[in-house]
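Case study B.
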Amino acid sequence: MKEFRQGIVTLGAFEKMSVEGHRGILSYSENEVAVRMAHGTLLVTGDNLEITELNPDELVLHGRIDAIAREKCKKISTK
Amino acid sequence: MQKNLYKIRFETEGFKEFTLNALWRTGVCVSRIKCRGNALRFSVYDSDSARVKAALERAGIKYSVVGAQGFIPKAREFFTRYFLIAGIAVSLAATALYSSFTGEITVSGAERTDPRKIAEIVEESLPSPFVFGMKDFSAIERKIMSVDGVAYASVVKQGRHIVVEIVEELPLVDITDTQTPLPLAANEDGEIVRIVVLRGTAAVKTGDKIKAGQVLIEPFVKDAEGNARAVRAMGIVEAKVRRTETWEYASEEEFNANAAEEVLRRKQAFETTLTEDEKFIGYSFDVKKLDKSVQISIYYDIITRVA
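Model:
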């Protein structure tokens, strides 16, 4: 059994990203994915973003990733 | 192990973030997530599907199961599909094999030629009842065409049938010339009793005495202006003719003993030789005494067609 660590983001060739220790998804669109973390929000922007796997502790995101930002507080977008 | 072999694919409607969080809260692994608008498609292991369904129902998310993935469904699909393909292939092979056997030989176009003879030729020429892949029947066609009266032959295989189509040679027909202008002449001596001119101009009339070879109907007709036009003379000419029968008796005694009876017998025999067109009128006889013998002649008068 893989042991997940808290708040680890792994980026592969700006095409694939895995987030370990997430707490759910705040918003999800082709251009922006907001992932709730233990101490804030992880905001991923890019093109053709797609969550391909969702495990209790890990989230896998595919697409062209332009930017990753951490926000302490993020309003939930309903777009 | 079962868990790794079998996945269920779901489709949900509603806010995808809400759906994804609901799935995340169940603690199951969700893979192959595809998003189209708010519709979401994803796969979960079969062992987790009950939990997923319960969670989706609890959250009030509409869902449907759209398929299954993994070894078992793939195997099931494979066998279903490939057994079907195999079944079709076997059926086709069986049909091809079945149709390869010659069931019946059909001969058409044989009106004057015996179709059984043609069928026999085909049967003898086929390599075996199994004619799979045999497409060239030209040798058989040539054999059939060598039969008298057959001008052309075509042999094709249709299913289990060998269909032979033949075209026969046209029969020789005697063409009778009825147009060249010719007169109608008498074929024996006699006296005309009836003349019907169908074409031409009558050269004789009822009561005329005619000789063999005499022209009875001339080969022309005249129009209202008197212009003659040559035609083939045609008509019915009946005449009274005389047939003669003569025989001898060696002596007068023999004549006296047999003549009366013999004349009657010969007359009756003559009557039986008359055709439907001939009519017996009467007869007479003449007796001539020679040196030692006696000669007797019977004259039969009949009406017959002389042209």
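The first strand of chain A starts at residue 8 and ends at 12. The remaining cases will be described in the next quarterly update.
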